[in-house]
Amino acid sequence: MKTAHFILIFCLLALASPFAYASDPSPLQDFCVAINDPKDAVFVNGKFCKDPKLARAQYFYYSGLNIPRNTSNPVGSTVTPVNVAQIPGLNTLGISLVRIDYAPNVVVEGTLYVGFVTSNTDNRLITKVLYPGDVFVFPIGLIHFQFNVGKTNAVAFAALSSQNPGVITVANAVFGSNPPINPDVLVKAFQLDKNVVKNLQSKFWWANN
Amino acid sequence: MKTAHFILIFCLLALASPFAYASDPSPLQDFCVAINDPKDAVFVNGKFCKDPKLARAQYFYYSGLNIPRNTSNPVGSTVTPVNVAQIPGLNTLGISLVRIDYAPNVVVEGTLYVGFVTSNTDNRLITKVLYPGDVFVFPIGLIHFQFNVGKTNAVAFAALSSQNPGVITVANAVFGSNPPINPDVLVKAFQLDKNVVKNLQSKFWWANN
Amino acid sequence: MKTAHFILIFCLLALASPFAYASDPSPLQDFCVAINDPKDAVFVNGKFCKDPKLARAQYFYYSGLNIPRNTSNPVGSTVTPVNVAQIPGLNTLGISLVRIDYAPNVVVEGTLYVGFVTSNTDNRLITKVLYPGDVFVFPIGLIHFQFNVGKTNAVAFAALSSQNPGVITVANAVFGSNPPINPDVLVKAFQLDKNVVKNLQSKFWWANN
Amino acid sequence: MKTAHFILIFCLLALASPFAYASDPSPLQDFCVAINDPKDAVFVNGKFCKDPKLARAQYFYYSGLNIPRNTSNPVGSTVTPVNVAQIPGLNTLGISLVRIDYAPNVVVEGTLYVGFVTSNTDNRLITKVLYPGDVFVFPIGLIHFQFNVGKTNAVAFAALSSQNPGVITVANAVFGSNPPINPDVLVKAFQLDKNVVKNLQSKFWWANN
Amino acid sequence: MKTAHFILIFCLLALASPFAYASDPSPLQDFCVAINDPKDAVFVNGKFCKDPKLARAQYFYYSGLNIPRNTSNPVGSTVTPVNVAQIPGLNTLGISLVRIDYAPNVVVEGTLYVGFVTSNTDNRLITKVLYPGDVFVFPIGLIHFQFNVGKTNAVAFAALSSQNPGVITVANAVFGSNPPINPDVLVKAFQLDKNVVKNLQSKFWWANN
Amino acid sequence: MKTAHFILIFCLLALASPFAYASDPSPLQDFCVAINDPKDAVFVNGKFCKDPKLARAQYFYYSGLNIPRNTSNPVGSTVTPVNVAQIPGLNTLGISLVRIDYAPNVVVEGTLYVGFVTSNTDNRLITKVLYPGDVFVFPIGLIHFQFNVGKTNAVAFAALSSQNPGVITVANAVFGSNPPINPDVLVKAFQLDKNVVKNLQSKFWWANN
């Protein structure tokens, strides 16, 4: 039986094509353990805090990140976030964690093929094939990808510079939004045939419905 | 002759699908007029400054934003940035400006159809048709679009919350990177046929070459 | 009939002598649409947010910025702010917009005479006469002015690097405060005759009463 | 002989009417001792740093703040700043100090009469008479004043939330800029007679010349 | 009778070994006067604000910092904080103040012996003996100390770059925590005999009980 | 043979007692790959950047974090940092990584005993015993510890919210500084016998010499 190789990808933004939006503020107390949003639909930027006197070790704790996740879905990967929703003690601390399991894509020998594209100045592609023990950085806000080019499952852990990174999978956002974007817009932006756009929109419907 | 309608789009991120990455620092002096990067290839986060005693009004000034731009290109729009590269006095001030000219797409009566998609939580699409005098906000970091649905040229002015917004046109970055992203990655991510991916990569080659 | 020239002033601080106070934080969610202050007089730094599931396009939208404003008042200009009070979706985004209409002051041919003064190091004055299509930057926190030196109305649009810029018109704050500042203080600070100070305080009484 | 009373004014902004502009960044090293600007007129936002291995206690040290200053000048007060120019170790630390000596104005019994005016929303004046041992806070960016209403000299120490606060004395900036602001602008803004404006501009000429 | 010398220590972090944690955000309003935490145990990062219309001078004011404090306790010094708990108007302003009274330690002639240690790179010690009128800066986050080496009481005033500095007295936190840290951990970390550790833990019990 | 258990500690601050100091700024470019400090001893807050056109994948990459480290030293643990010194592409990104190997301390069955102490308000101790797959958060700036209570080696990976976290091992800084702190200061602060202090100072001499 083949076992998943362990890789520590040290990225600032996690999934297939995520875009987190920047620096969280510093805390003004020792900590500010998040509470769930109150019933009466009032929210703040970030989260309300518990009474600090009620802080317990469990609010700073999460368990089970070593358990492999199921990757049998259309994109062949599963993201397990560990952010302020899982660890309320992360509130105001500006950092979070993610485990990503990749199904093999059986292309060539090796492990994880990763890369990112610089912004409109030159849209340069920078890539690397990663092996166990490797670390890679995705600069914040740039489109990037990770692709398991090995024959076995792969797993990566990523640290993110936000307590609640706003992850965006480009394909899902563009073709799977709810309701769908007017196909004429996508035909123009992606220079695709209208039928291809409509077909894509029906395929990505699974993502959010 | 039909003239372009004037619209003031008040967006945080400018082009077809741009992603700027967040809050710039506050200045520690009255101002810090940018100088061009020095010959010996040493850079800082942001820009070096001129001697403040040499500050002149022209470093805080730009002219000609009222002149219509040519929109005859594949995507039918032209972006004229006014950022720290055009106004060196913007250095450290965390704000910039953009003029966008849109060719008409002759679909329905009206002017500019704009929208943005929320992040992976639900990928919800929020849209609006804009008329002259309207203002619209694109929350920072979210995928968004602007589409001229009128019969005439349109023009919009946008303010951006960065002195040097890292704009990313999604289609260009994904299909037009240099060198191209391995098509297998895009086949998986976008669920497109490999021939469609290769065709798109050849089309967007113009963007960066 | 003479029509108002259109000028795009790109300033960080808007009115006759405004002082906004610095960098707003980055958002921790996709967006945080502001709600009005709750009845029970509890406030936060910034604003509380609506339930994100209730976000609608109208919260990111403002209409009518193309309509000229009336400028018949003692200072001959009118400021129309478009900030978090008008567009609740601006909350946490750190940017806002303003339209300023100027009555003509019929001095010389031209359009808008603008300038700012550096801080106490040397109190240097930096000025420029602006024409349609021109852009000018006022560095944040410095005293500045705009003066319509043309024969017709003028209009300017300004982008501000705060969602809720704390605008201060120097003359109003100094001579029109409520209650008035002790005249002895102003006599000393401005080296004015006590009768002139008292006269000014009576004139600026209109500003806040 | 009457001795000066000691008052600890704890203000964020120091002189007669200063406006500092906001939050300095956090340091990325243990410290970053400032060096003087290099000969070749290249500057950064803030200051360049010395080699950290060359840090000495003297770079974090200033002496003589207990010595009374001479207050015989037109405005009757003297400000002794202790910022990054005096203590290079303050670079990147976002805080500084100031000593202010006030000549007596012999008005009523008491010590220091201080106040600030809120921004344009209502231009409300908030004041207090301070006695030895009192502490007062001026919210950042608001116009404020301090006035010695006692019969003896007074001294105050102030902490400022910037390593290099951009202090602006309103009267100096408005009437003493170099070159002077066009009197027509000031006539309009302050509703003063043109002769009064010209007289004031000649009086404040001392400030920067 | 011997009187206490007055010293103005200008430090970023206050007590025997305090560690404050960094930059507070800028305010989004003129001010945001703190209110006490509401009954129902909901908190925010920082503090809720009062209705700004109810702002009074007393919220920006503190009295009595000139009164000497009693220093007869085991560590021979007393810290009087003046932060957001004492002056609610400090909320969101990122600065606070402290008075420290030191009992004499009768070692050598002189006044206050201060120092700090750089981080793990080289743990270098930087020290200075301070006299009346001296100012000294402790870089944020570094372990530091102040020790009265004179024969009389001493007093210092310190400005801190946080509205609510999270002060940590190292000895109290390490040996006086509640409940105590497992002695085996401290034996290993400090290379102390287990009996010495247990003895220290009993001595520092006073600090928090 | 017993193998080391794998634990993912998700902490903001890394070693036995580290104190990192706070929020790094957001980048103003796509990235700012660090260069080594220039010969002429001029530094900036953070690091200078390479010409962005020369960016290569290797600047965002680090290899070998999966290799166990030797833990035979007095404190029984080894920290392997992966910060801006190892990955120059981390410059301006505000995040870094660390691998910690712990020798077993053979106390009880289990794995890693961790905890932190709140600041001076109550110096409360919050602890947890961690097992493979567990995640724990140390709030920034608080004194904390990790102790291998198992019979085998343990390894943890930690993400830190700074590109260059200023780590401070309390015992090393207090007793191993160079030159040593005056023993009288430590006798007073830690209530230790002078001989114990001198003995500790000789023991910790290894740390920095």
Number of E strands of chain A: 9
Order of helices and strands of chain A: EEEEEEEEEHHHH
Q: What is the name of the CATH superfamily of the largest domain in chain A?
A: Jelly Rolls
The largest interface is: A-B, 59 and 59 residues
Number of domains of chain A: 2
Q: Work out the oligomeric state of the chains in this entry.
A: homohexamer
User: Radius of gyration of chain A, rounded?
Assistant: 19 Å
CATH topology of the largest domain in chain A: Jelly Rolls
CA-CA gap between termini of chain A: 35 Å
Strand order of the largest sheet of chain A: 1-9-4-3
Please give the CATH architecture of the largest domain in chain A: Sandwich
**Alpha-beta classification of chain A:** alpha+beta
CATH class descriptor name of the largest domain in chain A: Mainly Beta
Shape descriptor of chain A reads globular
Organism (chains A, B, C, D, E, F): Gossypium mustelinum
Protein name (chains A, B, C, D, E, F): Germin-like protein
Keywords (chains A, B, C, D, E, F): Apoplast, Disulfide bond, Glycoprotein, Manganese, Metal-binding, Secreted, Signal
GO cellular component, one term (chains A, B, C, D, E, F): apoplast
